[in-house]
Protein 1
Amino acid sequence: MTSDERVLLSFSVPSEPGNERIALAKVADAVAPCGLSDDQVERLKTAVAEATMNAIEHGNHNQAELDVDVTVAEMDEGVAVSIVDQGGAHSPPADAPVELPDLEMKLAGLQTPRGWGLFLIQNMVDAMDVSIDGDLHTVRLVMRTSPAPRPRDPEGGPRAEQV
C-alpha cells in the first residue's frame, strides 16, 4: 500500500468454493462511493471474483482453515484491491508473463481448458500486480476513476499494464 491510499475495508473469507461471491459483494459495496462507472464496478467485481477463486483453489488449496485476505483502498486516482493467499512458496515467479490463452489449441486439446484466470483478471482492470513474500501471494488490482488509455497487446486486444 502506498502513502496516498486510504483503507476502506479489510476482511477475510475462508478458502471454500463460493466465497468469491462474498468477496465481490463486499468490494462492490466498499467502492460504491469512489467514482467508478457502473462498467468499471462490474469489471472490478469480475476480477475480484476470479482472483479470489484462484486464491482459494490454487493458493490455499480449498483448505477452509486458511483465509483469503482482501483489502480495498481508495487512492487519489481510483481504487486498489489486494487479494492475499498462503500459496506464495508454490507460485510461479511474480514477474512471470501472463500467457495468452489460445482458444483453438484449447478446443483441440493441445492446451488445458483451464488457465484463463490471470488473463481475464488482467484485462478487466487498469493494472494488475502479482507479488510473493515468503508464503504470501498477493494479487493487487487497480481501477482508476479516470482510466488512462489501456495498452493493446500484439493481437490488438486490450491489455492491462503492470503496476
Note: The longest strand covers residues 6-14.
Protein 2
Amino acid sequence: MRRGSLLALALAALVAAPALTGCSSHAKSRPAAATSTTVGPLRALTVKTYEYSYDVGQLTALRVAAGRVTVSAQNAGGEAHEAQFVQLRPGVTVAAVVAGLQRDPSGSSLTATVTSVGGTGSIAPGARGGAVLHVVPGSYLMFCSLRAADGNPHFAKGMLLPFTVE
C-alpha cells in the first residue's frame, strides 16, 4: 500500500477512534497513568510505544516547541512500532483533512493538506529509536503505519496522536 494511502487511513481512523484523553491512546497493555499535568512546549519528546498506543508522559496536552525537536522512542510493546509525523498545512483542520479523505479515500489529495516531517522508522520490541525533527508552529499528527499480525495498521488500533507545535 502506498505511504499516502496509509496516511489517509490514519487520518480517517482519527475520526472513527474514540476521543483521546491526555496524550496517549488507551490500551490494555499500557500501564495506568497518574494524574496528568500540562507543561510548557517541549524541545525533546520522549515516547513509549505499546500495543497499540503512545505514552508521552503525564501530560494533558502535548505541546512541542517550534524548531529542532529530538524524539526518543522506546518500544515497550511486543511488536515493532514507529512514530511518523505530519504537519497539517496552515489553516487546515483535522476535520477538513478527514472530510477530504471522505471525498477521496485513495489519499491522492493528501499532499494538499499535510506535509511529512519525518519519523523514527520501525523500532523492534525492547529497542529504542529516535529522530530529529524541524517543526514550525501548527497542528501535527504522530502515527504508526506498521501492520499488526491481523493485517490492520497500528494507527487503526489507536496509535494516532494529534499535537500542537508552538
Note: The longest strand covers residues 67-75.
Protein 3
Amino acid sequence: MTGIEAAVADAFRQEWGRLVATLIRMTGDWDLAEECAQDAFAAALAHWGTDGVPHRPGAWLTTTARNRALDRLRRSKTEAVKLQEVATLSGPDELPDYGDSGVSDDRLRLMFTCCHPALTLEARVALTLRTLAGLTTGEIARAFLVPEATMAKRLTRAKHKIRDAGIPYRVPPAHLLPERTGGVLAVLYLLFNEGYAASAGDDLLRPDLTGEAIRLARLLTRLMPDEPEATGLLALMLIQDARKAARLDDDGELVSLEDQDRSRWDLAEIGEGIALLEAALRRQRAGPYQLQAAIAACHGEATNARDTDWRQIALLYGELSRIVPSAVVELNRAVAIAMADGPEAGLPLVENLAASGQLTDYYLLPATRADLLRRLDRKQEAAASYREALDLAGTEPERRYLSRRLAEMAG
C-alpha cells in the first residue's frame, strides 16, 4: 500500500460515517449520499498523490462530496426543492443541532440517529453498520448469517422506508434515547465482532474496529451508567480483547483457545472487564451481553485450559439460549457440553443443528463437527467435515488452520 493509499484508507476509517451522515442530512437520499461519498474518496486517490494530503482531509472530502451531490441534484429537475435547501446551508462542515440529547461524541450521536424505532432492529443495526462503520454489505450479511443479496435488499427497503415516511435524520432528546439503546448496543457488538474475528480477507484481526467499538462502549456506559447491558457489553469486549496477543502466533497462524499462551493475555484488561461485569450483575437485570461476558470471564479466569469451568459455561449458554434463541448459541452450548462431558455428548447436538439447516453457510458448524470427530479418532469423517469448513471459511488464517487439521487427519 502506498503512502497516499494509506492516507485515504485512514481518512475512510475516520471520516466515512460523518461524511455520509452529513450528505444524508443535506439531500435526504441515502443512496445519493453513499455514492457521492464514494466519489469523494476516489477523487482523493486521484488528487492527493499530485497535490499532497490536505491539512484537513475531512473538510476536503466533505467539500468534494457536497459538490458532487450538488451537481447530481442540478441534473435532476425533480430535485429543485432539495437543491434550494442544500444551497442555503452555510457551509460543508455545518452539523445539525443535537439539542438536549446529552450525547457528546459525533460517532455515537450518529448511531443513535440511525437507530430509529420505526425500523426493525435488524434494519437499524444493518443500516448503521453500513452507513457509519463503513462495513460492506457482504460483511454485514455474514454477521446476520444471510446471503449478501438478501441483505442488500433489506438495506434498500430500510432506506426507502426512511425516505417515504419522512423519518427525520437527527438525534433524539435524552428521554427518548433508551428506545434506541438496543440498536446501538447491537451495532457496537457486531462492530467489535467484525474486528475480533473478521468475516473475510487476509487478516483475522481488525484492531481499528475493536478499538473503536471499545471506545464507543466506554462513552455509552458513561452516558447511561444505570444501563447494565451497556456495562455488560463493555465487559465482554474487554475480556475478549485481552486475548488478542495470543490468538495468532509469531508467524500469523491461528491458535485455538485451548492452545493459547495465557501469559500473553492482558490480565489488567480481564480484571477491568470482570469488575464491570460484577457491577452490572449487581443490578439483577441480566441480559444477553452480561451472560456472554460471564462466559468470557469463565475463560479469562482459568489459568490453563484444563481449569476452564465448562459446566458453568454450558449452563450460561443454556440461559442465553432461553433469552435469545439462536442456532449459534446452541452450537456454542454443544461445544461446552462436549468439553465438559466428552465429545460423544456434544456430537449429537451438533448433528441435530446440521440437520436443521439453520447454519448452512456457517463454517464453524462443520469445523466444530470435525473437531469432535477428531477427538473421537474418527479421522475419515473428520476430514470430510474439515473440507466442508475449509470451503466456507472467510479469512486466510482460518483456512490455513483448517488445512493443517485436514493434513493431520490424512496423516
Note: The chain has a mean pLDDT of 88.
